[in-house]
Amino acid sequence: MMNWNSTSIHDAARPDFGRQARKGVPEVIIAEHKTVEQSTEIAKRFLEATGRAILSRVPPELEACLREEFAGQADLEWLPVARAAVLRRSDARQPEPGGRVGIITAGTSDIPWAEEAALLCREMGCQVHTVSDVGVAGLHRLWEPLQRLLEEAQVDVLIVAAGMDGALPSVVSGLVDVPVIGLPTSVGYGMGGKGEAALLSMLQTCAPGMAVVNIDNGIGAGAIAGLIANRMAATRRGGG
Amino acid sequence: MMNWNSTSIHDAARPDFGRQARKGVPEVIIAEHKTVEQSTEIAKRFLEATGRAILSRVPPELEACLREEFAGQADLEWLPVARAAVLRRSDARQPEPGGRVGIITAGTSDIPWAEEAALLCREMGCQVHTVSDVGVAGLHRLWEPLQRLLEEAQVDVLIVAAGMDGALPSVVSGLVDVPVIGLPTSVGYGMGGKGEAALLSMLQTCAPGMAVVNIDNGIGAGAIAGLIANRMAATRRGGG
Amino acid sequence: MMNWNSTSIHDAARPDFGRQARKGVPEVIIAEHKTVEQSTEIAKRFLEATGRAILSRVPPELEACLREEFAGQADLEWLPVARAAVLRRSDARQPEPGGRVGIITAGTSDIPWAEEAALLCREMGCQVHTVSDVGVAGLHRLWEPLQRLLEEAQVDVLIVAAGMDGALPSVVSGLVDVPVIGLPTSVGYGMGGKGEAALLSMLQTCAPGMAVVNIDNGIGAGAIAGLIANRMAATRRGGG
Amino acid sequence: MMNWNSTSIHDAARPDFGRQARKGVPEVIIAEHKTVEQSTEIAKRFLEATGRAILSRVPPELEACLREEFAGQADLEWLPVARAAVLRRSDARQPEPGGRVGIITAGTSDIPWAEEAALLCREMGCQVHTVSDVGVAGLHRLWEPLQRLLEEAQVDVLIVAAGMDGALPSVVSGLVDVPVIGLPTSVGYGMGGKGEAALLSMLQTCAPGMAVVNIDNGIGAGAIAGLIANRMAATRRGGG
Amino acid sequence: MMNWNSTSIHDAARPDFGRQARKGVPEVIIAEHKTVEQSTEIAKRFLEATGRAILSRVPPELEACLREEFAGQADLEWLPVARAAVLRRSDARQPEPGGRVGIITAGTSDIPWAEEAALLCREMGCQVHTVSDVGVAGLHRLWEPLQRLLEEAQVDVLIVAAGMDGALPSVVSGLVDVPVIGLPTSVGYGMGGKGEAALLSMLQTCAPGMAVVNIDNGIGAGAIAGLIANRMAATRRGGG
Amino acid sequence: MMNWNSTSIHDAARPDFGRQARKGVPEVIIAEHKTVEQSTEIAKRFLEATGRAILSRVPPELEACLREEFAGQADLEWLPVARAAVLRRSDARQPEPGGRVGIITAGTSDIPWAEEAALLCREMGCQVHTVSDVGVAGLHRLWEPLQRLLEEAQVDVLIVAAGMDGALPSVVSGLVDVPVIGLPTSVGYGMGGKGEAALLSMLQTCAPGMAVVNIDNGIGAGAIAGLIANRMAATRRGGG
Amino acid sequence: MMNWNSTSIHDAARPDFGRQARKGVPEVIIAEHKTVEQSTEIAKRFLEATGRAILSRVPPELEACLREEFAGQADLEWLPVARAAVLRRSDARQPEPGGRVGIITAGTSDIPWAEEAALLCREMGCQVHTVSDVGVAGLHRLWEPLQRLLEEAQVDVLIVAAGMDGALPSVVSGLVDVPVIGLPTSVGYGMGGKGEAALLSMLQTCAPGMAVVNIDNGIGAGAIAGLIANRMAATRRGGG
Amino acid sequence: MMNWNSTSIHDAARPDFGRQARKGVPEVIIAEHKTVEQSTEIAKRFLEATGRAILSRVPPELEACLREEFAGQADLEWLPVARAAVLRRSDARQPEPGGRVGIITAGTSDIPWAEEAALLCREMGCQVHTVSDVGVAGLHRLWEPLQRLLEEAQVDVLIVAAGMDGALPSVVSGLVDVPVIGLPTSVGYGMGGKGEAALLSMLQTCAPGMAVVNIDNGIGAGAIAGLIANRMAATRRGGG
């Protein structure tokens, strides 16, 4: 497929089909640094081996290619804001462990990465509850929906996404008794405006009970949150 | 509107219509990290709730969309250098507290962000007086217009915008007895040339009486300058 | 106590005695940026209010002061490598939720911060199991103790501490199905050697299911790990 | 005084005795980068010319020297936490413009720099009101004292000092309608822990109406806050 | 050719035709920072002087120009993933010293730069053996192909390419007794995601026996690996 | 011309027509951060006031506009590699002080900025002598042309441009007794590859007698070199 | 030995006694981040298991402790400039593979780390040839000793140590046909002066055939150079 | 002298006695990264070979050693603020080319490095004229002494030293027609406070005719300024 020299001992891609079983987290094809041909080929192999392929950071050319290539063979779920896709064979069955994940965003602009996290959590069989645009510029907007996440939805873990000052996750973590995953986003301007200010502020949090993932790493936030929530759910079902 | 999953408890955007009343500063829709659909929708809600919507960092597609979407419903004021817009319903009335703000730029290239600041100050009801291209490469150009800002216009506060060496705000702050807001801009080249040199130089100022906002944050500079000036004006009117 | 001017409305320190109840995590007095007098005073207040005070980053002068000040009034547990202390009144009782935390270090030099994490987890009532010096320079040392943590100790969560290349947390996270908290340490040399390389490598992990805390933030790693483990334990006891 | 070569046209130090009159802000002798001899000499000249000398960042050797050198000639006010000093001749009179400044700190460790700011404001003739240790790890501690600053003390401007995550100034700025000066402090650990995280978070604030000074620059924060407050006060007295 | 002023003493480019003889490494034309005209002209001179021209980082316009310009005069070998080219006159003969180089990549996305390295090694007359997508997220994929590289192919040196966490080279270097050249790639996201995390992690390796080249510098990795391997081969043939 | 609000006291641009007389260096219009309209307007004013306008970093749209706008009114000298332009009225006369400047580049890719420097020196009336592609990868190429610059051309000052490792200026400065201006360029890759490595290496030079300008600042390098050379020339003519 | 909690499954240090056999490189005890007790204990175990212990970055207290603790039990070789030590039992025998390593330093100040490298190479059984203070400020000092290293000593590999501008390794690598290991040192001042300029310049080298280790990592440079040289020697003896 | 292994081909230090003749700049022994023994030994050799030795960054132990070691053999000139020394044999004669150098400092704290520059210029035989504490916080202090430097002293070149905001060199360079060497100093606080803000601001200067040296590099500033001034002087004497 790739122009990889004939002296190669093995092929270029070795998809990790067993990751879901071994880790409890499915492999996601991050299309950003791959050619359209590479991503499509790897998606095809996942679809064959596991009945499903998850792709994130999908450029327009790849989106078109996926729609054409897999038409009639698999259902395509498309998330336009996150530019992520799930291909699913009609016969694919997913276990539903039932972890409960809450996701909060500081602003409307943080949604693409919050959606990446939500996607992965749902694909891991979690229930996902989301609240957005409740940042610290107007904290009065936060209390009521936060209360509902904790008391009605009874979430096992919270993902809090924020760009710019990155202050919301610290504020939330100071108020709740569930673990918080801070998800800094590349929303901002000027110095520290590619998410560095948000990331550093979260790393420096004075509110205990929070850990962070890298800037814009919605998939990573979803993976650890889903893992925590599903282990809680397994214990609830008596399997912990 | 957005592809935000159905398990969401709330919608994606929660505009802060009460900010002007609570803070004395209206909310500005920074379009840079939002989709055209998101920005338009939020503008629509502001227009309905407050009679006005202010947008900055407007990309060409959004400009076109605004012109089409709101034709006949609202007046569009368009600032081509700053790429900012104000939509206003004909029945909208704005209070005019009357703070006096002076804005100085070191070079012609700093104008886009100075204009953002001027826009916000005017929308807050301030009188705005501007002087541009009086940087330290030729200080002789500075004295006369600075004198006029202080003595004729009697400004309450000064915004000084500069990129490159960022030296002008320190020079001005060493000469005047009004508070100075330093506005570093992303004008420059090579190391420190995205505004970092200007920002750091202003943060290190040896002239007391200056505080700074982030690189290219004309809106932020306008907000604090307008707030200071309008409080002065309120006191002048006997309301402080 | 401090030379804080008489116009102050309130005193200088407002200890958060209710944090353990509200958050499930006790407040820790980080002595690093405080004077000996400040730290001792705050410890005294905690001892009175809650029967216990936890101090980290204790400089030698403060250690001496604590030993003298609280002699006969409280037991002092001292951790010489981490330079941390727990003061406990004899009548203090701690709930024992029983979460199970595993802690792994890449090298001997990472122990001070791993010990900080262990201390906080134990004070939160967790069982703590530790393994050290199993870094990637000799991966053969890792398998057997990792197996014992997972199968014998059945830990709910793993903290993996590493300085230098920071590679161990990614390797561990690729192998296990429990959530992993990466704890980068300031062990290293040259570029990136104050823990930045380790932190960045963990933030960039290609193994899903890991989140990180800041460099040398053993207390923070312990807080979130203890929170996760104790919620698992509560669910096991039927309270989740 | 200094070993400055005989070909020098002028002496080494040119104190700016007229700064208070010209700028409304007195010059402060920052002792950090000067020799004991230089600082003492400059203090002597200020005392002669203006009846007062203000020194910050005073090392122990200089403190001893000041106490000895000026005994009987001037009163020494000493701030031990900030390590700052004011020398005052008994006949010195200071105008009292009467601006009202509020100062808030996120933690006990931020006090040294908050005290620097308070010192300068008081020397500028302002009334200073302070509140400390009300950071976002326990936001419930903030409301009541903030209310008192705004309603009882009716401050003209707020300085909010914070290290670590730097979140408090954004939270406060989202709630109040007075200008806020963010004062980041070098309290923290690991990446961004010398105050960079706090500074960047404040530069990226999503709450309008705030500007910042550099890390640990209490003198700078006091200067601009005092300037704003005193201009308000002058207007109140009818002189604006 | 270039608009280089007439007072120039010499022409703009001085190709180093003797480098292969002097250094054992041929010169590569890095097209990234050159105009199409410059690159084509230099390639022409190399082809004339040495019978071969190697170009890397070839933009599409240059690729088209090379295909047209040299049609019929030289064979063009084109590597689409690396975007590299070798032009060869039919009469060109290359010595074949026979060093043995192994190249491993952590992920599929690292292949472009691994291919650059492979290209240069082959042009230096080495045998190249490659293995890809065996990163630390699933270490079980590594053992068998690594064994084959060491025992079957008996490589003299290993290049290990990795982006993101950059952990694979350290893991490999901890296991083998051949020199390892770490090749960090610009694959990643967020902080450290342009290859800085990978580079720093490799520079901080705790496994001895590894040195590194710059991010994406496949040519540089190939040059030193080829040099080491060919000297081994020369010694094997009795010429060392 | 620009959408600059009507309350402006002055216009947006204040060209410094007297700079050549005052400084000995003409003002250059750096078009990079200006709109086409701004650059054209400023060029027009310079042409009227001084008979000449110099523009650097000219984008294609501006090039087209200049060609059309000034056709028949002024001669346009165009440097395609540097993308710089000189507009000159036929009656313009330039003094020719006759300083002698040598310019050396490490590689072909450094030529655009070397050409900027050469352009400014020539416009200042210097004789310019250039040598290119003599970097440290093959130092044997350096000796002969360097000798000619020093002995035949007898240059008063040397500009040495280099990207990547930035080693050439230090090597040259160790060999010659004329002042050297280091001009780092943004040629490189990976860490430090936007010219930072070159700039830092020059700032750290162990060879005395060199100062530097910012990355890609050919105009700045030309300005100081021309100033030095022309003062030498004036002294030679007896006017120093 | 350390205050490591009793729930530990294993002890704190797991020395890698088999590293020499597995890797061809002995483990070095880097004392910098360890307590005196930890370092002494690990040295004791190495001495028992392998007859030798190598320690680098030895602080004065540890030096004293080693001299006292091992007196009469082992010979202590002490390198005062590098502050490194080798403890050796009288019955210890070391194989002598006989690789030939050349080490060059740019300045006298680079010697501590060059000596670390030389120490490790000698302990690996290499012949080491050194040349110092031949940096680019006076290149005429370089030619003759470089010639002797290549022709008389016939080194298999060169380590070139340089701080400040880091230019020497690139210059050397442009001249020789043996692999070069660049060793940047923390000698310098101002920006980039902790070795960053030197490291970046080496990473950006335009001379092919060089790879680098981290700043001040003399041990790492010695390890890879010794590995390369000893493999060459093995091949010379017919074992490659 | 140093513990440098017996296989060394040459000694550890190779002083460049001919540098003054070849470069016009004498070699300075920077004692900062050398042992007392190394610095003393090198000073001895310079004294023997050239009759003079110049040392900068002299720590107290070395100062004591120099005073003792060379008592009676050479005169010691000691600069206490710069901590620099010149040893001179009574029979040493220095040529006096007579270049004229002006040195300006922004603050009193910048004097140590300005003095380093002055020292080297005087040792190169220049006349040095200095002005200090005329920074931009009070520009009115600048005009008169600057005028005297230009008109009375008729300096050939200006060194302008500044820390903090680094604005003074740009202001001066905008006013004068002599070449300006910017000398940033490590005077400052918080972000950019180790001289980075000053250096970056100078690199970004908008006033043409300035080049810079690294932070605190007074020796480097003196070297290039002395070189420029002495060449002017040589031309004045008819030798240029």
Describe the structure.
8 copies of one chain form a homooctamer. Chain A is of the alpha/beta class and 240 residues long. Helices cover 35% and strands 18% of the residues of chain A. Chain A has 8 helices and 9 strands. In chain A, strands 6-5-7-8-9 form a 5-stranded parallel beta sheet, sandwiched between helices. In chain A, helix 4 links the parallel strand 5 (100-105) and strand 6. Chains in contact: A-B, A-C, A-D, A-E, B-D, B-F, B-H, C-D, C-E, C-G, D-H, E-F, E-G, F-G, F-H, G-H.
Number of strands of chain A: 9
pLDDT < 50 stretches of chain A: 1-10
**Coarse shape of chain A:** globular
User: Which whole number gives the mean pLDDT of chain A?
Assistant: 90
Question: Helix amount of chain A, in percent?
Answer: 25-40%
- Largest protein-protein interface: E-G, 39 and 39 residues
Number of H/I helices of chain A: 8
How far the N terminus sits from the C terminus of chain A, by CA atoms, comes to 44 Å
The helix/strand order of chain A is HEHEHEEEHEHEHEHEH
- Radius of gyration of chain A, in Å, reads 19 Å
